[in-house]
Amino acid sequence: MSTTNDAASQPVVNPEEFQSDLTGHVFGIVDDPKTNLPAITAALLAADVPVDGIHLYCCQPGADAFDPSGSHHGLKARITRTMQSLVYEDQMQVIEDSLESGHALVGVDADGSADRIAAILRGHSGHNIVHYGRYTWECMSGTQPANTSTGQESKTVS
To answer: Is the N or C terminus of the chain more exposed, i.e. has fewer CB atoms within 10 Å?
Structure first.
Protein backbone atom coordinates (compact mmCIF):
# COMPACT_ATOMS: atom_id res chain seq x y z
CA MET A 1 0.00 0.00 0.00
CA SER A 2 1.26 3.45 -0.77
CA THR A 3 1.85 6.16 1.78
CA THR A 4 0.52 8.94 -0.42
CA ASN A 5 -2.95 9.80 -1.56
CA ASP A 6 -2.70 9.02 -5.29
CA ALA A 7 -6.43 9.47 -5.83
CA ALA A 8 -8.46 12.15 -4.12
CA SER A 9 -11.15 9.57 -3.39
CA GLN A 10 -8.87 7.29 -1.36
CA PRO A 11 -7.60 7.81 2.19
CA VAL A 12 -3.91 8.18 2.90
CA VAL A 13 -2.23 5.03 4.20
CA ASN A 14 0.25 5.53 7.05
CA PRO A 15 -0.12 9.32 7.21
CA GLU A 16 2.98 11.19 8.35
CA GLU A 17 1.10 13.58 10.65
CA PHE A 18 0.94 12.39 14.28
CA GLN A 19 -2.66 11.77 15.36
CA SER A 20 -2.65 13.03 18.92
CA ASP A 21 -6.37 13.35 19.62
CA LEU A 22 -8.31 10.11 19.34
CA THR A 23 -11.50 11.62 20.76
CA GLY A 24 -14.55 10.84 18.66
CA HIS A 25 -12.77 8.22 16.58
CA VAL A 26 -13.53 4.54 16.14
CA PHE A 27 -10.51 2.31 15.60
CA GLY A 28 -10.47 -1.36 14.67
CA ILE A 29 -7.91 -4.00 13.77
CA VAL A 30 -8.06 -5.83 10.43
CA ASP A 31 -6.03 -9.01 10.08
CA ASP A 32 -5.81 -9.16 6.27
CA PRO A 33 -5.11 -5.63 4.98
CA LYS A 34 -4.82 -6.56 1.30
CA THR A 35 -8.25 -8.17 1.27
CA ASN A 36 -10.17 -6.11 3.80
CA LEU A 37 -8.93 -2.51 3.49
CA PRO A 38 -10.31 -1.89 -0.01
CA ALA A 39 -13.72 -3.28 1.01
CA ILE A 40 -13.79 -1.30 4.27
CA THR A 41 -12.76 1.89 2.49
CA ALA A 42 -15.48 1.40 -0.14
CA ALA A 43 -18.12 0.72 2.53
CA LEU A 44 -17.12 3.78 4.56
CA LEU A 45 -17.17 6.02 1.49
CA ALA A 46 -20.56 4.57 0.47
CA ALA A 47 -21.80 5.45 3.98
CA ASP A 48 -20.82 9.08 3.30
CA VAL A 49 -17.80 9.09 5.60
CA PRO A 50 -15.51 11.85 4.26
CA VAL A 51 -12.26 10.50 2.84
CA ASP A 52 -10.25 12.78 5.13
CA GLY A 53 -11.99 11.17 8.12
CA ILE A 54 -10.55 7.73 7.32
CA HIS A 55 -7.10 6.86 8.65
CA LEU A 56 -5.39 3.63 7.56
CA TYR A 57 -2.26 2.25 9.20
CA CYS A 58 -0.70 -0.90 7.82
CA CYS A 59 1.93 -3.26 9.17
CA GLN A 60 5.26 -1.98 10.58
CA PRO A 61 5.18 1.30 8.64
CA GLY A 62 1.73 1.83 10.17
CA ALA A 63 3.10 1.23 13.65
CA ASP A 64 5.76 3.87 12.99
CA ALA A 65 3.18 6.34 11.63
CA PHE A 66 0.53 5.82 14.35
CA ASP A 67 3.34 5.71 16.91
CA PRO A 68 1.55 4.19 19.92
CA SER A 69 4.42 5.16 22.25
CA GLY A 70 5.02 8.61 20.71
CA SER A 71 8.73 7.82 20.42
CA HIS A 72 8.96 8.74 16.71
CA HIS A 73 7.30 12.15 16.98
CA GLY A 74 9.09 13.96 19.80
CA LEU A 75 8.56 14.79 23.45
CA LYS A 76 5.02 16.18 23.11
CA ALA A 77 3.92 12.97 21.36
CA ARG A 78 5.51 10.81 24.07
CA ILE A 79 3.71 12.77 26.78
CA THR A 80 0.43 12.54 24.85
CA ARG A 81 0.70 8.77 24.39
CA THR A 82 1.74 8.30 28.03
CA MET A 83 -1.37 10.15 29.19
CA GLN A 84 -3.53 8.19 26.75
CA SER A 85 -2.10 4.91 28.01
CA LEU A 86 -3.30 5.83 31.50
CA VAL A 87 -6.84 6.39 30.25
CA TYR A 88 -7.05 3.82 27.47
CA GLU A 89 -5.17 1.20 29.48
CA ASP A 90 -3.36 -1.21 27.16
CA GLN A 91 -5.15 -0.33 23.92
CA MET A 92 -2.01 1.32 22.52
CA GLN A 93 -0.07 -1.90 23.10
CA VAL A 94 -2.78 -3.93 21.33
CA ILE A 95 -2.53 -1.56 18.35
CA GLU A 96 1.27 -1.70 18.26
CA ASP A 97 1.37 -5.51 18.56
CA SER A 98 -1.23 -5.90 15.80
CA LEU A 99 0.54 -3.56 13.38
CA GLU A 100 3.92 -5.15 14.04
CA SER A 101 2.31 -8.55 13.30
CA GLY A 102 1.32 -7.43 9.80
CA HIS A 103 -2.26 -6.39 10.50
CA ALA A 104 -3.87 -3.01 9.83
CA LEU A 105 -5.54 -0.36 11.94
CA VAL A 106 -8.54 1.52 10.58
CA GLY A 107 -9.41 4.79 12.28
CA VAL A 108 -12.54 6.74 11.44
CA ASP A 109 -13.72 10.12 12.67
CA ALA A 110 -17.12 8.87 13.82
CA ASP A 111 -18.83 12.28 13.94
CA GLY A 112 -21.69 10.89 16.02
CA SER A 113 -21.96 7.67 14.01
CA ALA A 114 -19.86 5.32 16.13
CA ASP A 115 -22.36 2.46 16.01
CA ARG A 116 -22.64 2.65 12.21
CA ILE A 117 -18.84 2.80 11.77
CA ALA A 118 -18.33 -0.13 14.15
CA ALA A 119 -20.92 -2.17 12.22
CA ILE A 120 -19.06 -1.52 8.96
CA LEU A 121 -15.76 -2.61 10.52
CA ARG A 122 -17.32 -5.74 12.07
CA GLY A 123 -18.95 -6.56 8.72
CA HIS A 124 -15.48 -6.67 7.13
CA SER A 125 -13.71 -8.81 9.75
CA GLY A 126 -12.69 -5.90 11.96
CA HIS A 127 -12.08 -6.68 15.60
CA ASN A 128 -10.79 -4.95 18.73
CA ILE A 129 -13.07 -2.10 17.71
CA VAL A 130 -12.96 0.76 20.17
CA HIS A 131 -14.70 4.14 20.26
CA TYR A 132 -12.54 6.73 22.02
CA GLY A 133 -14.12 9.54 23.96
CA ARG A 134 -12.57 12.16 26.18
CA TYR A 135 -11.26 10.20 29.18
CA THR A 136 -13.21 7.11 28.13
CA TRP A 137 -13.20 4.24 25.68
CA GLU A 138 -15.90 1.79 24.70
CA CYS A 139 -15.45 -1.65 23.18
CA MET A 140 -17.69 -1.95 20.12
CA SER A 141 -16.54 -5.39 18.93
CA GLY A 142 -19.10 -7.33 20.90
CA THR A 143 -16.18 -8.87 22.79
CA GLN A 144 -13.62 -7.42 25.15
CA PRO A 145 -10.49 -6.13 23.36
CA ALA A 146 -7.46 -8.38 23.74
CA ASN A 147 -5.02 -7.80 26.59
CA THR A 148 -7.32 -5.74 28.81
CA SER A 149 -7.38 -6.55 32.47
CA THR A 150 -10.54 -4.83 33.69
CA GLY A 151 -13.11 -7.34 32.53
CA GLN A 152 -15.28 -4.38 31.52
CA GLU A 153 -16.32 -3.44 28.02
CA SER A 154 -16.02 0.26 28.64
CA LYS A 155 -13.92 2.37 30.89
CA THR A 156 -14.42 5.89 32.14
CA VAL A 157 -11.89 7.88 34.10
CA SER A 158 -13.16 10.75 36.22
So the answer is: C
